[in-house]
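User: Can you help me understand a structure? I only have the sequence.
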Amino acid sequence: MSTHPNTGWPSAEELLGPNGPFASALGSYEARAGQLQMAAAVERALAEDRILLCEAGTGTGKTLAYLIPALASGRKVIISTATRALQDQIAYKDVPLVARALGIQPRVSVMKGLANYVCMRRLTEFKDSAEGIRPGYALALNSLQRWLPDTETGDVSELVALQESDPIWREITSSSDTRIGAGCEHYEECFVTRMKREAEAARVVIVNHHLFFADLALRGPHPGRVLPDYDAVIFDEAHQIEDIATNFFGVSVSRGRVDSLLRDAERLLVASGDDLPLLARGTEGERARRLTDRVSASSENFFAELVQRFRGEEGRTTVDPDVWRGDLEQRWHTLDSALEAFGGFAEETSERAQDSGAGSWGRIADACEVLSRKSRGLRDDLAQVIEGGPGRVTWIDVSAKSPRLSAAPVDVAPVLKERIFESIPAVIMTSATLASVGSKSAAKSRGARSKDGGDSDADPQEVNPGDANPQRSAGIPELAYLRSRVGLADDTIQVDELIVPSPFDFERMALLYTPADLPDPRDPRFLHQVVERVHALCELTNGGAFVLTTSLRSMRSIHRGLVSRFGAGRVMLQGEAPKASLLSRFKAAKNQVLVATLSFWEGVDVPGEALRLVVLEKIPFAVPSDPIVRARSNALEAEGRNSFMELHVPGAAITLKQGFGRLIRTRTDRGIVALLDERASKKGYGSKLLSALPPARRTGDLEEVRRFWNDTAVRPTP
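Assistant: Let's start by predicting it. Here is the structure, written out as tokens:
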């Protein structure tokens, strides 16, 4: 038996194989060839400081295929997942499974974003404030007070009595803007302090992509960090990396962010006890009040002018540099001056309080230091957004509850190449959907390259017609699309690739229905006929259906049509209840129809008979008018490349695979996937999109769908 040189562990293939401890300890365990192949590749990448891109089809068992090598490597490994739910699944399901099978106690910790943890300083200040004694917060504070003595983590997800949307969380959770560090009087009891200490001691740290890139952004020109130093990183659901990185290497300023600063300041201005706050007294209190009123008024004027300029726009709208002239430029300067004055006052007050001694003065010093930092951050970010720069795009979303201005790099590939692939010794990127159009379905490993020193109704092809040049429009094979988006397109970095197909028998288990008799998605008749076809399919399967749309408009229209046919009790709508609640009801009822948009296309797991029909309304092209999408398309076209075939089609293929992947989650699942977009059958790119999907049987004939269902599908238990 071969052993790992650093830890003495057997190889991952031996541990996960048919004669290994998992097979012995777990009665239902089944060794999978694809899992063993992936585990060996991950083990090699960690041992030899390599980069591995691995698509692992549904059912491969990819979590254990990377978790076992990570634990066995003896190195400090970050595992980065797409969501907090996946973090919890790994930490509280998969890690205990490993512990039970191997008889060990793995040194694993979980780190979430600071906003997931109660801040004891902010909680104390909130309870002492006038706002905190309002009746609207009484129930939430009572729940918090009962829970805090029992929690070891301070993770707000533990407190099920309060919803994630409860307004109290924004007042009492931690953030990079509000965290003081070792000088805080609550530092030793701080949940974030405890979380960071546990992460420093662990060998494997489980984070999410948002936290990973928040840390990576700090490690750039600034001497800060969120995560402990590490030797390797494993990205699960790695197809999301480009979009998440774009957000974190950009900046965003909203009216709500300014309001948050003002709420924190208010707590120092309203007396609610004998010792706090001293700023409410005398001339200093009056000065502080004038400054906060000035910030509030200038913020209101600035964002009101923005909303007026972009009134009627929906979703994200590009902001051209010419906008920042005249009245709007003056209102920006007025807001900047108000923030500068308030920040200076907060800094002065912090220094004065520090000189006055401990106790309540120390609390004031800490709070004012935070206010000063938040003011500087707002000024810096607003300047970045407005001043822009080459290779960046600026946009505004005025339809949100709080108007938001944002700016981000058009292309994050150079940043990812430098900060990740050229800086971190070992990097593994995996997902069930990494390969795009033209990829080979058979498992393969390619030799490493040498290292020598909103609404998508519009067809993007109309925006970027191409297809005239067969060589340019031939599609992007294998994992080249991912490589091009994350900075691995050239030959300067050594990369291993592995595509492990799903072990599921899709030809027997699933049918892909692609009718060609429906109108073009841009035809006014399209949505009406989609409702009729969805109704027919749901009648066949007796519900148990996800209807996934590409826009809120389509979602609402289809929902209304289905309610008129099935009644409100049978048809659920995304947003009418929290996502977890909707899924729980869906699984329990077994005959429901859930209409949802893109957030349900991936990361939703409904195994078994409860889900037996997935309807994909349209090909999920990115919205061509979205500022980031348009800027990336323009950049490719400026290089003489076909943005439709190199950006829109590969991106749609990956999302389409994610949608298809909702159906078959276990070996016993059966069902139908229906793609109701005639372009999949009639456009030249349609065959490329369909080639990226699992090898299910295909038909455009509704009668054949009925025969498949009557002959092979599993019926739901009454």
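Now, to help you interpret it: The radius of gyration is 27 Å. Residues 115-189+251-406 form one domain. Let me know which part you'd like to focus on.
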